Amino acid sequence: MEIKVLGTGCPKCKKLEQLTRDAVSELGIKATIEKVEDIYKIMQFGVMRTPGLVVNGKVVMSGRLPKTSEIKELLENA
């Protein structure tokens, strides 16, 4: 599984990265997690509000900070 956390470095973006890492660990899934901070790369995903979460090339969430349980559900459904 390939996961990208989109965000320019704000506290919410950093928190999403940590929550995503926690969710992956708790689920015991094999995934690569990449933090994308370049605004132009973020815009290529069509995300105008950060933080954003991309799973296997598909934007699954943007513009808010979800709970760990929601991230786990998004990952399980990917």
Automatic annotation (TrEMBL):
Disulfide bonding pattern of the chain: 10-13
Annotated catalytic residues: 10, 13
Name of a matching Pfam family: Thioredoxin_3
Keyword Metal-binding: no
Keyword Disulfide bond: yes
NCBIfam families: redox_disulf_2
PANTHER family tied to this protein: THIOREDOXIN (PTHR36450)
The protein, known as: Thioredoxin family protein
Species of the source: Maribellus luteus
